[in-house]
Design a protein that fits this description.
57% helix, 6% strand
Length: 1013
């Protein structure tokens, strides 16, 4: 974090600092609420001698009730309406005192005011305890904003008036310094000379790249040459990883902090790391080694699965093609064979006819060679599909050796199951054979691991002598078969890797409820707070009510949007109509003066100072104040796919400045913080409540958008449907009231539903939707359950109601549904959910503490056995929540319309986002690595939010005008205008970021706008 002009740590932005430490801004209702005085409050204020002191004390009492803090102000500086309120109530007819309030009258009443509400003033003696608290908190999260928030909660809990901002700045700075020194000492004490040398070697430049620079390079694809580099990186990191694996648990730091320290090693250059203290550098490198090793392991495992799947698909395709060819040959020869057979019953041929004549007639029907091959084909046993598959495997043996073997040999799998251990024994045996540079085919039969050659495949995997006795393995087939079994068991969770993120044992990922008890108390997870019997009773009661209401309304034809066909026993659904506000949009924005994106960017930054969140990576060596023009240029360059070099040719800032700014300031963390600042600013605008679809429910929506990538990365995958011959990714976005709250990149091969909870739960803005809409890709077997655990509701937009009827269940022992027009497909297992509450608690706690992502959880749950009770219980709970929602959706056309509108909004955002991405031609994200592509995606979201913020400011200006005049018609039209519009903006052209002589005059822009004209 950058420092302020006094060199202190900057924790809050200007806006946040005003919100926390600025005098409260009351509306009329709040002013009445907080300025209403009790007898005790009245007595305390009027114990002051002068009118000025009494008035000052009254104001302090009201402000303290609102913020539990004291403020330094003069009566002239206090809000006029607040002063006028007390003057009218307590000093009617008097004028505002001109004298200054003395320091004695300013500070003496504070102790009495605090005591009225059970608080006490901050003392210097509290500093040591608060510093100790901050130091302990820093082991969980070293971000200053987290420490400040937790200290605020602690102070309120202790009923202590919070100290000034500078005191907290110094305190958090000291806490971070103490934590840093503690870690440096522990690391340095634990490292041997050999380890020091190994870490130092990473920072030694040899030719153009050091070892660390090479480790930071991401693989571009799963090609064998790229995977060879990945395995080399893994071998380089192995000794450091072993040290980190032993050392990091003893440091008592969270996974969040490990990831943070690792990111510093990733972003810092080698030159920067060499300038830091040795203990600090070694800590960053060890965290990086720990995280990078596990990430590379996952890359190797993903490559193993990718190549195995590719081989299986190719062999299956070849076998299918050969089977079709054989079948066609048989089909083509069948009529001719029939003609040949008819020669035997042809009455025109006498018995004395020479056989030679018959033969020549047969040759006229089918040539001699064709007749010979056809006869051979018909007399032999037909080739089975299995024979063809193994024949195709023989042809692909070289690819198996080239691509699969190196990957399998590099991995160290583990297993707790008997079948898994059998295949791991086979893998180890193969490793030993290949290490001796021998062939599997030449190994004795007795050495083959038991239970790895199934009896049904003996004829395919073994070689036999003339007597039919097995003499050895078919080496290439056996190797392929073992790899196939390993991949299947890895997908099922029967085998796992300890040194991995995605493929660890499921039980190892779950947190201990006892160890994390204190941390869980802070989290608001409804599932963990309420007894399961109470929760289930309420839900099953609601389910029964919904069922009976649905049937009654359907029978009585109260559901005008649904019709029941008595003959076909089916529902006819009249879908909600789409919004018809496009013409209104074009009419409104078409009247506005067009402005350049640079002007819009600068204007929005002046309103909410979101660029202040773009903190430098190296605060000690970088400029303390960022060059806002250069920041704007590099963000626009990434969002619109120019790149810094082309942007330098298109704007008034040289390339070296853009490149340095990019390296110093553009990181996912800073871009997310900048986006949060804009999001919170939009939420504070008067127009924001008018965006709400339902005043009682804040809808959020999730959806993915396809983007091509300029360069290949591991996350970028082929998809002919979306990218043609190119590769691409999915930008998965979380939106609420037109504001893009969060975004993440997924592979085009990954199921979007696995990220619904993650993207909602990781939302760091102040806008917190509770109902999450999505398309059919947002649904899986657990999402309704998981979101409900955390107090959120999944509300997908159904496209086929008939398909949803197959997911309607009822509760156990709930009778009376047999006569319903639409009947449940089954009963939900109440007792199973009850019995698995403890295990479901573990999963909820793990997700809540962010020790495991939902994407990893869903993959692992789906790999569990279908008989696994915890998996079944989660799916049963999901059926319960989904059935309630589906019945509500069927009954309520307004809910259908609201969900539909919410989804339309994210589609409108995607159009805006697509327009921004295609400014430079193609709809793609720029970057050489997955990290750089993610930065490009975040920059695109930032530009989109800037546009939405600008439009929201314009709409707020109109709202203020129409509220003042009471124009209800205009206000109603205003509700329908979307801020996700760009007709009045210029994205193309020569960018003049340093030309600040084009200010935006809102009044002039809105002067000629009349919605009702």
């Amino acid at each position: 974090m950058r420092g302020d002009i006094n060199g202190r740590l900057t924790i809050l932005s200007k806006t946040e600092k005003v919100a926390l430490y600025g005098i409260p801004e009351f509306d009329d209702f709040q002013r009445i609420e907080f300025f209403a005085m009790t007898e005790a409050e009245h007595a305390l204020a009027f114990a002051r001698k002068s009118v000025a002191a009494q008035l000052h004390c009254l104001l302090q009492i009201g402000y303290f009730k609102a913020k539990h803090s004291f403020f330094r102000f003069s009566l002239v500086e206090a809000p006029e309406q607040d002063v006028a309120f007390f003057m009218q109530r307590y000093f009617p007819g008097q004028t505002l005192p001109s004298e200054e309030v003395s320091d004695n009258d300013r500070y003496l009443p504070r102790k009495g005011i605090a005591a009225l509400y059970g608080f006490r003033l901050w003392l210097d003696d509290d500093l040591a305890g608060l510093l100790n608290k901050a130091t302990l908190l820093a082991r969980t999260d070293v971000s200053p904003s987290f420490l400040l928030a937790e200290l605020m909660v602690f102070l309120v809990g202790q009923r202590i008036v919070r100290p000034g901002y500078t005191t907290l700045q110094d305190l958090i700075t000291n806490a971070l310094a103490t934590e840093r020194e503690r870690l440096e000492q522990l690391v340095e004490a634990a490292l041997t000379k050999t380890t020091h040398k190994a870490l130092a070697q990473l920072l030694v430049r040899e030719n153009t790249l050091s070892d660390l620079a090479a480790l930071k390079q991401d693989a571009k694809s799963f090609h064998h040459s790229q995977m060879e580099l990945e395995r080399q990186k893994r071998r380089t990191l192995a000794p450091l990883y072993a040290i980190a694996k032993t050392l990091l648990p003893s440091l008592d730091i969270s996974l969040l902090n490990i990831a943070y320290y690792a990111s510093l090693a990733n972003f810092y250059t080698i030159y920067d790391l060499r300038r830091l203290k040795p203990g600090q550098t070694n800590l960053y490198l060890l965290c990086y080694a720990w995280q990078r090793y596990r990430q590379i392991t996952d890359n190797v495992v993903e490559a193993f699965g990718y190549h195995m799947q590719k081989l299986e698909d190719e062999t299956k395709a070849v076998a299918t093609a050969q089977a079709a060819k054989i079948h066609n040959e048989r089909q083509q020869t069948t009529p001719r064979v029939g003609e040949l057979l008819l020669l035997y019953v042809d009455d025109a041929l006498e018995d004395i006819t020479p056989f030679g004549d018959v033969r020549h007639r047969a040759y006229r029907i089918m040539p001699k060679e064709t007749l010979r091959s056809t006869g051979k084909l018909l007399t032999e046993n037909p080739v089975s599909q299995l024979d063809l598959r193994w024949g195709a495997v023989d042809k692909q043996g070289g690819l198996c050796t080239k691509n699969m073997r190196p990957l399998a040999m590099a991995l160290s799998f583990e297993s707790d199951s008997t079948s898994g251990k059998d295949w791991l024994a086979a893998l180890q045996w193969m490793k030993d054979v290949f290490a001796r540079q021998q062939s599997l085919a030449k190994q004795p039969m007795a050495d083959i691991p038991s239970r790895t050659v199934p009896s049904r495949l003996r004829n395919f995997l073994l070689r036999f002598d003339q007597d039919g006795k097995p003499v050895g393995l078919d080496g290439s087939r056996y190797e392929f078969f073992v790899y196939r079994q390993l991949r299947k068991r890895l997908d099922k969770g029967n085998i796992y890797l300890d040194d991995s993120v995605q493929h660890r044992r499921f039980a190892d990922d779950l947190v201990s409820m006892e160890v994390k008890a204190e941390a869980l108390k802070v989290l608001n997870i409804p599932w963990l707070r309420q007894p399961v019997d109470v929760t289930l009773e309420a839900l099953f009661t609601e389910l029964d009510i919904q069922w009976r209401a649905f049937d009654e309304e359907l029978r009585s034809s109260k559901l005008k949007h649904l019709e029941f066909d008595q003959e076909k026993k089916t529902l006819i659904w009249h879908r909600p109509k789409a919004d018809k506000d496009k013409r209104l949009q074009q009419g409104f924005y078409g009247k506005l003066q067009a402005r350049d994106i640079a002007d819009i960017f600068r204007f929005v930054n002046e309103q909410c100072h979101f660029l202040s969140a773009m903190t430098p990576l190296q605060p000690r060596y970088a400029k303390k104040i960022a060059d806002e023009d250069s920041l704007m240029a590099v963000i626009v360059a990434q969002a619109m796919n120019y790149g810094n070099l082309k942007m330098a040719e298109t704007c008034d800032i040289p390339y070296h400045v853009l490149d340095a700014t990019h390296q110093q300031y553009l990181r996912p963390a800073t871009l997310i913080a900048a986006n949060d600042t804009i999001s919170n600013f939009i939420a504070s605008l008067p127009i924001f409540p008018y965006y709400s679809i339902d005043m009682d429910v804040l809808y959020g929506s999730v959806d993915g958008q396809k983007f091509a990538t300029g360069r290949p990365t591991l996350k970028a995958r082929h998809s002919r449907k979306y990218f043609g011959k190119d590769r691409g990714v999915v930008a998965y976005t979380f939106l609420a009231n037109h504001v893009a709250l969060q975004t993440d990149l997924l592979g085009a091969n990954q199921h979007e539903s696995y990220w619904v909870f993650d993207i909602c739960y990781n939302n760091t803005s102040d806008i917190v939707p509770t109902t999450i809409t999505g398309d059919m890709h947002s649904i899986n077997m657990a999402n309704f359950a998981i979101l409900h655990w955390f107090g959120m509701n999944l509300a997908p937009r159904f496209t086929n109601l008939h398909a949803q009827l197959a997911h309607l269940y009822c509760g156990p022992e709930q009778v009376g549904y047999l006569d319903f027009l639409i009947q449940p497909v089954g009963q939900i297992d109440h007792s199973l959910i009850m019995s698995e509450k403890a295990n479901m608690d573990h999963i909820a706690a793990t997700l809540g503490l962010k020790e495991m992502s939902q994407a990893v959880l869903m993959r692992k749950i789906c790999t569990l056995s279908g008989h696994n009770r915890t998996r079944r219980a989660i799916f049963e709970y999901d059926k319960l929540i989904r059935s309630i929602y589906t019945l509500r959706y069927l009954r309520d056309p307004q809910l259908q319309s609201d969900v539909h509108r919410s989804e339309n909004r994210i589609e409108s955002y995607h159009q805006l986002r697509s327009t921004i991405a295609k400014v430079n031609g193609r709809k793609e994200l720029t970057g050489r690595t997955d990290l750089e592509v993610a930065i490009s995606n975040q920059c695109g979201r930032l530009i989109a939010n800037v546009v939405i913020a600008y439009n929201s400011i314009l709409l707020s200006g109109l709202l203020t005008r129409y509220l003042a005049t009471g124009n209800e018609k205009a206000l109603e039209l205003l509700r329908r205008v979307s801020p996700a519009a760009w007709e009045h903006l210029h994205f193309l052209g020569h960018y003049a970021f340093r030309d600040k002589y084009n200010p935006i005059d809102l009044e002039a822009i809105l002067a000629g706008v009349n919605l009702t004209a």
